Structure formats: C-alpha cells, structure tokens
Amino acid sequence: MLRRLASSLLLLAERLFEKGLDQAQVETYLQSGVQQLLSACRAEEAGQAAWYRDGIRVLRHTIELGLLSSAPEDLVLDAPSPEYEREQGQAWRERLEEGDLIRRDGVRAGTMTALNSLLRDPANDSVLQPVIESLLRHVELRRERALQLSPGGSEDEMWIEKHGAAILLARAAQRFHDPRYLNAALKLNDRAWRFHRRVRLDRRHVLYLYALSEAELGLRRVVV
Amino acid sequence: MMQLLLLAPTSSSLYSRSVAHLIQAEDGMEVCGIVVRSILNWKRVRVEFRRDGPRLLQKIREKLISSPDASLGRDPEGMPSFARRIGLKPGSLRSDARRWGVPCMVVPDHNHPRVVALLQRLVPDLVVFTGGGLIRQHVLDLAGRGVLNCHSGILPRYRGMDVVEWPLLEANTQPEIGLTTHLMERGVDTGPILLQHQEGLRAGDTFESIRRRLEPHMPELVLETLRGLREGVISPQPQALDEGRQYFVMHPRLREVAAVNLHTRVAPDLGHS
C-alpha cells in the first residue's frame, strides 16, 4: 500500500518536472509577440529602438515558421547588422583565438552578441566551433548557474547573455548540423520561460522571442 | 586468481549483484571487496537530480520502490528475469558479501578516503564499476589495471547520456545502439575500449524496451571482458575521440522526434516478427 502510494506520488512529480515548453506553448507565445511587434514596428521611431533589429528577425522567422502569413506591405523586413557590430565581432575573433572565453564563473557581457555576429561569416567557423563546444558543456554542466556575468552586471544584461547563448546554439546547430547544440538551446529557453511569461517590448523580451523562434527553426531544419 | 573490487550504486542493484554473482561463479577470478554508495545522502540526491532531472524520480520509483517482481519482472528479457536465470537469490550486496566473506563498505562517495584506504589494503587487479557517480583520478590511480565500466552506448561515437535516444535522433538508417566496456579515465566515457555488444532493433520497440533488453547484456559483457583480460585476448584500444561526441540528457521535444524516427524510419524497415 505504502509502496503504491510512494510510486504514484513519484510518477506525478516526474510528470510535473518533465514538462518542458511544448510546441503549442511556444507558438502561442510567438504569435502574441508578433502582434505586439507588428504594431510597434510601425511607430515612427521604431527603427531606433534597441529591440528593433531582433524584432525584425523574429518577424522573418515567424513567416518561415508559418505563424505569420507574410509581412504587411508597409513593413520592410530588412535590418542589416550595423558596421560597428561587425567591427566588434572582428575584435572578439582575436580573443577567441586566445581561448578562455567561456569560463566556469561565467562570461563577460557582450560575449554572445559578438559570437552571434561572428557566426554570420562562415570564414569564422573553425575558430568558433571549439568555443561553441565549450559553451555547450558550460550550459549542460552548470545548468541553472550557467552564463552568469563575470564581472557582474544587471539582471537584464544577464538575460541578454542567456538569450544570446540560446540563439547562438540554435544557429550553430543549423550551421554545423549538430542537434546537441539545439538540445542546449531548448533547455536554456525552458529555464528562461518562467521569467518571461508576459511578452514585453524591450530588448530582453524580444531577444527571448528571437531565441524561441530560432530554436523552432532549428527543430525544422536539423532534426525533423 | 584475478582479484576484483566492485563499486556499486546501491546495495540492491540487480546489475551490480549479477556482476558480482557471475564473477564469483567463474574460475580464476573473485570479488575481493565491495563498495556501495549510500542512498541516504543529500549531496548525492542533489547532484543526481541536477544531472538526471525528473528521471532520477523515475529511477527511484523503478529501482527502489516498485518491486522487481512487478510488471517488469515478468519480462523474460528484463534484468529481474536474467537475475533469476543465473540463480541470484533475493538479498543485497551486503548479504552477498557476508556470505562470501569479503569486506563490504558503504560510503557517501566512491572517491571517499575510506575507499582509497581499502584499495591500498586490498590491491585489486582491477576495479569493476557498476554505477554510482564519477570516479576521481586519485581512485583511478589505485585501481590496478584500471576501472572497468560498461557504457550503455557504442563508443567512440556516443559518449555520455541518453545514448539510446541520440542515435535514433541522428540516424536515417540502422542506428548504432549497444554497449561498450572500457577502462575509465577522467573524461566521460573516453577511456580505452575493450569489448562491444551491438543491439538490433525490433518492430514495436520503444526506448524503454531497448534499455530493458540491453540491461541483462551488461553483466554478461562485463564477465566476457574480464575473461578476455584474464586470458590476455583483449587489449584496451585507445579511443579516437574525434570520431565521437559527448551527449547530454535529451530535451523532451527532441525525444519526441527520436521516438517518431524509431517508429517511422527504423522499425518499419524491420518487418514484423
């Protein structure tokens, strides 16, 4: 009797814990985010907003995912990376070759933005792959404690780094055709969920939308 | 006589007990000591929950709470049936050790100083690891010819966790599923390879049915490896690490895809038996 009770309680706990974000939850969240983005992107000063370029990427991804039929005619879904970001990326390339970018105690703010920028150019693949491999190990082994900022920073900065890592891993999964990277991206997105349940239009939340949409694309392109 | 020290995850582990039983029944080798990791250990629960997540609860439910004679015990290919076939009596490693007159130690961790002292005292030819966490270098260094482990995946390709699921996610044709015995090193499943067992798939297979089928092969493969080492017909082959990857616990969404692959891509090719 006691055995059966304990067994049922454990089974219940397993089901509660096991549940990561499922496809329907992600799609509902993305659709809600897209509605907000579509109206915000039309505002006069939208192009100056910190979230704008990532928001455009979310819209492009949701079209590819079939969650948005097409871009409204008055919206141009083109937001190239600014020159300064590319220049910063190249500066980081030199640091990549020195190694020690992903440390046990965390990462420097801005690391993931730079790595994401470097991933746009396949010429960087050979120096990037070992860093992404150590990021994978860091995320999988440190789990909730992964990607702290070192030296410290604000909570928003920390989340920007975590979402940046999820985006990087989901993109790297597609570039290197390695589902382990996508696996880690999905876990990062799950862990972030309870802190981002309500969509807001700030850089951190739009980056989360981007991370979710990039992982969905990864699922379609890498494993399905 | 080959002297073997056994490291076990729990005193009731059927796998560990089967390995010990097979060794004791074999000519030319014997268990000279047993080290069991204690279950009532908050640090262990915390570390294992962090590593396995909710699957730790499943492990506790299946291995410690449900009776082995319940549903799984009736599976003729499962571990409880195998244990019965080899004549394993109900009991524990502690009662086995008493019967055989060998020391049995319960420790919070296999790297505990008491384990080091036991290794220094017994000087075994080989240590047989049947589960219970990571083994640190200072223990590896004292293990005679090494620490033998049976990994439930095909090395060097699949190191780490969920290595039944990952081949099914990645493979379009026949996936590499099976077991590998190897000597342990500091890295995860990176040590020299000794012997392998390849497991074929069957129509209607699930991840659980594949695992259940693999389990009884583990003690058999360990024994076969020990025989090969004793007779000098098996020599450790270093792994080409770049031929494989380390895998981690699979996310439920990828697991769903792997399950679909198992049913739609792999199993249908097998026909129905």
Provide an overview of this structure.
The complex is a heterodimer of chains A (224) and B (273). In chain A, helix 2 packs across helix 9. Chain A has helices at residues 2-18, 23-41, 52-64, 83-98, 111-119, 125-142, 155-176, 179-193, 203-223. Chain A is built from 9 helices and no strands. Chain A is an all-alpha fold and 224 residues long. The mean pLDDT of chain A is 87. Helices cover 39% and strands 17% of the residues of chain B. Chain B has helices at 14-25, 42-52, 55-65, 79-85, 93-100, 113-122, 137-140, 165-170, 207-214, 217-231, 252-266, and strands at residues 2-8, 29-37, 104-107, 126-129, 147-151, 158-160, 178-183, 193-198, 245-247. A 7-stranded mixed β-sheet of chain B has the order 3-2-1-4-5-7-8, sandwiched between helices. In chain B, helix 1 (14-25) packs parallel to helix 10. Chain B starts with a strand and ends in a 7-residue tail after the last helix. Classes of the chains: A mainly alpha (224), B alpha/beta (273). Chain A binds chain B through residues 3, 6-7, 10-11, 13-14, 16-23, 136-137, 140, 143, 178-180, 182-184, 186-187, 190, 219, 223-224, and chain B through 50, 53-55, 57-58, 60-61, 65-67, 166, 169-170, 245-254, 257.
- Judged by helices, strands and strand pairing, the structural class of chain B is alpha/beta
| Percent helix range of chain B | 25-40%
**Could you give the order of the helices and strands of chain B?**
EHEHHHHEHEHEEHEEHHEH
**Beta-strand residue percentage of chain B:** 15-25%
Specify the overall morphology of chain A: globular
Low-confidence stretches of chain B: none
